[in-house]
Amino acid sequence: MAKVDPHSFYDDLEPKIKSFDLKMKIDFEKQAILSSVKLNFEREVIGKIHLDSRDLQINSVHFKDGTELNFKVYEKKPIVGNLFEIDFSKPSQSVVVDYEVKKESSALQWLKPEQTKGKVAPYLFTQCQPHHARSLIPLQDSPSVRVTYSAEISVKKELTVVMAAGSSGVREDENEKTFLFKMPQPIPPYLFAFAVGRITSSEIGPRSKVWAEPEMIEKASYEFEEIENIIKTAENLFGPYEWERYDLLVLPPSFPYGGMENPRCTFITPTIIVGDRSLVGVVAHELAHSWTGNLVTNKNYNHFWINEGFTVWAERRITEALYGVEAATMAYAQGFYALKNAMKEFGADSPYTCLVTNLEGVDPDEVFSDIPYEKGSLFLRLLEETVSRKSFDRFIRAYIEKFRFSSIGTDELVSFINEYFEGLPEKVDADKWLYKPGIPENCPKIYSSRLEYIKNLSDGFKFGTYPTKEEIGLMKPAEKLVYFQGLPKKLSEEECQFLEKNFELREMTNAEILSKWFIISATSNYKPTFKMIRNFLLEVGRMKFVKPIYKAMGTNKETRQLAKEIFEITKESLHPLTRTVVEQEISNYEKD
Ligand code: BES
Ligand code: ZN
Q1: 307 C-alpha to center of ligand 2: Å?
Q2: What would the CATH number be for the domain defined by 292-435?
Q3: Domain 485-589 belongs to what topology?
Q4: 8 in the Ramachandran plot: left (φ > 0), alpha (ψ -120 to 50) or beta?
Q5: Using omega within 30 degrees of 0 as the cis cutoff, is the peptide bond preceding 444 cis?
Q6: Which atom of ligand 1 approaches the CA of 130 most closely?
Q7: How far is the CA of 559 from the centre of ligand 2 (A)?
Q8: Ligand 1 pocket by C-beta < 6 Å: which residues?
Q9: Residue by residue, what is the 3-state secondary structure of 389-455?
Q10: CA-CA distance, 256 to 372, in Å (whole number)?
């Protein structure tokens, strides 16, 4: 073998990086990071080594004694970035690279004070999954490589650095603070993460604190207060939590994801802070990654479902244990809707609807979808239903025990399933699930009488059957979400008014429900929501919401105009990923 990852220059015949020691000095004025990293390899490098990088300005490469080495940074290629080749003049197990992270780094969003809650200090955060770690550190940026690290990050005195690693103290001099960290557990590079800003913390459990801007800390503490209970529930299901601490960092609203499972410190969007804990499922999801994803890791993005499918399945088992079967069923129902939607968007024959994909030459960011999440979790649910819950729970623990701290592909998983339950892959037609597009016929049925009731209520809308005030009052947030998902997108003004009034959508703080409402009201050209949509899109960068709302705004002239106006205001300050997604949606307007 040589190349094992379509999105990395990593060559598995060359020595792997085993650890790195990183120093960074954050410069908010220049929006750049002056950096130096010592890369430590598992064995001596002889001759040339090939690393990943993207938009890094490499200033010098040398041994510890100062001897300079020759190197070459190749021209930037789409998706993979710049191949970075170092020529070792003599065999060595380590090398130091001095470099600068530029403003363009695809892993970073630099926020101006106005883009934060407090509006007094700038903010910076990283998002390295799937292939952005290389735009912060030159390394083998493939999830098939695992590294430990130490880091020293210097910032102006009034700022705080939060890192997805263990803290080993703070050094202070006249005008700078240096935050020290250690990550003793080996992680794939996409789990490297930090944030800088005016950030404070509050203890919420024996091994957890929440980090947020001071203005948010109280609300955030309330929303996540049950964290220890959630961790214990997960440990009961999947075995001991191996990362010591589990903290949460609440990011500014421009964070492009709902959550990111950075080790020891999940990064989370403020849009899940509703005030009623109704969206803590996202936390259950990110926490579950501590087993599925961070311990057992997909070896490359063709097998992304191994990370996300397992984690959605795990998340819903946590939901069931904490809040009951009904809550888990609602979550599956909402997911199944999202799955059908994604199937429709790609087309049911599209290879992107397979669990195992071939992403050679394809950017994982561009084909990100609900398929690996929802189809993946349903496949696991099918296995669980087939062998019985008790047996499957034993299997999951054995799976985690066997593959912990390693990276695997679908083949290794299927062999292990077949070893554990002989003949099971064939019995459930695993090949079809894994390698064929669409939803297989033996897909588990998601059913409960409450779910049927909600679905019927939702189906009735187009025939003029509206829920009563009492019925609405009895709906849980997750049920409202399922109800809204089932509604037609284009409604009359009266129908919009009914929803707005009776679901109290003007006061709605649940962003999941709100985003569904915005899609309906934009498609229906319902003007009374335009201001809300505008305010939402001026603040929120979570792609899951932003993308479908902009898409819905493409359906008629007024909303197209509104979309363009909003984008004109936000485009400079959007996260680079969100900006690309919005640009694409708006460029689609002209096509039809
Ligand atoms: N690891 C993902 C986020 C991600 C995936 C970032 C791929 C970059 C590339 C995270 O665990 C996730 O799935 N987040 C979801 C949460 C949801 C499924 C509960 C999100 O952001 O919506
Ligand atoms: Zn996930």
Answers
A1: 7
A2: 1.10.390.10
A3: 1.25.40
A4: beta
A5: no
A6: 9
A7: 32
A8: 129-130, 257-261, 282, 285-286, 289, 308, 368, 373, 544
A9: HHHHHHHHHHHHHHHCCEEECHHHHHHHHHHHCCCHHHHCCHHHHHHCCCCCCCCCCCCCHHHHHHH
A10: 19
For every residue of 197-213, DSSP letters joined together read: ES-EEEEEETTEEEEE-
Per-residue model confidence (pLDDT) at position 568:
97
Q: Count the neighbouring beta carbons within 10 Å of the beta carbon of residue 16.
A: 16
Q: How far is CA 42 from the centre of its chain?
A: 30
Report the pLDDT value the prediction gives residue 590, as an integer from 0 to 100: 83
Q: Which residues make beta-bridge pairs with 11?
A: 3
State how far the Cα of 164 lies from the Cα of 144, in Å rounded to an integer: 20
Fold topology of 1-191: Immunoglobulin-like (2.60.40)
Integer angstrom CA distances of residue 331 from 195, 200, 271, 320, 570: 31, 32, 18, 10, 32
Tokens of 7: 């999105």
Residue 243 confidence (pLDDT): 98
Please state at what angle helix 325-346 crosses helix 449-460, rounded to 10 degrees.
50
CA–CA distances in Å: residue 454 to residues 234, 408, 488, 494, 521: 29, 40, 15, 22, 21
Q: Reply yes or no on whether 286 is catalytic.
A: yes
CB atoms within 10 A of CB 172: 9
pLDDT at 1: 67
C-alpha closest to that of 307 among 407, 162, 159, 416:
407
* Cβ pair 172, 45 in contact under 8 A: no
Query: Would you kindly state where each structural domain of the chain is located, as residue ranges?
Result: 1-191, 199-290, 292-435, 485-589
Structural contact between residues 231 and 241, judged by C-beta atoms closer than 8 angstroms: yes
Q: What is the pLDDT of residue 81?
A: 98
| pLDDT tens digits along 203-214 | 999 999 999 999
- pLDDT score for 591: 75
**Helices 304-323 and 410-420, axial angle in degrees (round to 10):** 50
Cα(322)–Cα(324) distance, rounded to whole angstroms?
Answer: 6
Active site residue 257: no
CB 219 within 8 A of CB 236: no
Domain 199-290 falls in which CATH fold? Zincin-like (3.30.2010)
Whether the Cβ atoms of residue 54 and residue 76 lie closer than 8 Å to each other: yes
pLDDT at 592: 61
Q: Which parts of the chain register pLDDT below 50?
A: none
What is the C-alpha to C-alpha distance for residues 33 and 154, in angstroms, rounded to an integer? Answer: 10
* Ligand 1 atom 1: residue of nearest CA: 260
Q: Which among 410, 406, 423 has a CA at the least distance from the CA of 372?
A: 410
Amino acid at 530: F
Cβ neighbour number for residue 181 with a 10 Å cutoff? 21
Please, is 344 exposed, middle or buried when counting C-beta atoms within 10 Å of its C-beta (0-12, 13-18, 19+)?
exposed
